[in-house]
Amino acid sequence: MTYNQVLGAIEKILREKLNHQHMDAFAPQARLNEDLYLDSVLILEIMLALELDYGVELPEEVISRQDLDTVDDLARLFVEASDSARELARPAKELVFTRAEKEAAERVGVHGEDYVDIKVHCFVSSVCHAVKQKQLDHRPFFFGVWDAGFAVDRRWRLAYHAAEINHDFFRDWFERLYGPKVRQWYRPEATKEENLATMLELLERKKESEYLMVMLDLFHLPERENKFNQNPFPHYLMLENTDDPAVWMILDPDFRWEGKIEKQKVINAIMQPTVAGGFIFDAADIRTPSAVDLRDYFLACFHEDDNLLTRATREIVRAHVEGRDGVKLGELSSALRELPVISIRKYGLEHGFAFFWRSLQLSNTEFDIICDDIEALIQEFKTLHYAIMKLSQTGNDAFAARVFEKLGELDAMERDLKRRLAQTYRMWCDTRGLLHAPRHDLEEAVA
Q: InterPro entries annotated for this entry (predicted)?
């Protein structure tokens, strides 16, 4: 297909097949996310439609490309697919623990404060914002993120937000590690109006050092980014009063955004039936965590021999292939619609490595290799998702083999990363005189 043919096909797919409602800005230079509100799943839908309906197939290694910003980028990807193959993920190599005291002293790379921060969990990002403001290292709190909880319902659907998911694990460990008690002000048994009244009262009288968190439906706050095109989009952020009683200051650490929004618009997003939750904590109580507590938290979070997300995904695929509980193969795409929202939590592995790397003053070179491998893992989840969508939309059981093969590859990649993280963790324990596993009867607290 020529460039213009591909461009026309993309427009037709969006208008007719996907019934996309944001086509006014469609043009070659239109931005996929910001102008057309296309998330990663919808982009995969376009790719799959071009393959199945137009016979234009992309090499698997091209599907997960990261440099797609505009419609033009997407169109050229198909026109130039034969020349666009990227380097495949390298086989993981053994870690080389190279000391780099000079890099650490000069605060270069991972040792500096310009190191790219990871934002992949709204609750964790919110409480970690307060830790960062105290000039303390928030990275170890992300130990709990890469395998953070999700739900699989009775219809074998994956969800990052569900009634049975709460943040008690993170709340308890935040208090143990950093000090502040994260108090839940939102009462599930109360009405929406009663909880709103509680929040307004807390907001009016809270101390300057306190942070008030509230869950709202980001879909109903169009002023804010909704990069995953989620509806609903449950999300925690923090509120402050301003000099204008009709305007609130919004602090959204997870999306790195701070700004003023009309109070009534925010209240509308809070009052949606799709969301319920709120906490408050005092940053004045924040302290440096002890090494023993950090060790125990790591072990409480770490599943070296189990990849929870790939295991759950494998069971969901099997359920749909086998028709368990009446589910159909054609429902598999929607059942795993939220896979991208959950799989990006694997970026939290970077913070795990970064914490140990900074503490041990290790070389940036090896850290950069690890980051590349984490990136490769996350991008392989995208090719998995594409294979799942292809299986679901075609109903062809023959494509199931590739899905299970891809799940096996992802398992191997993540296990290798966790193996290397475990190596680094044990080295960190050794430098602090800590046992690798808790034996508090034999240890004294280590600051």
A: ACP-like_sf (IPR036736), DUF6005 (IPR046047), PP-bd_ACP (IPR009081)
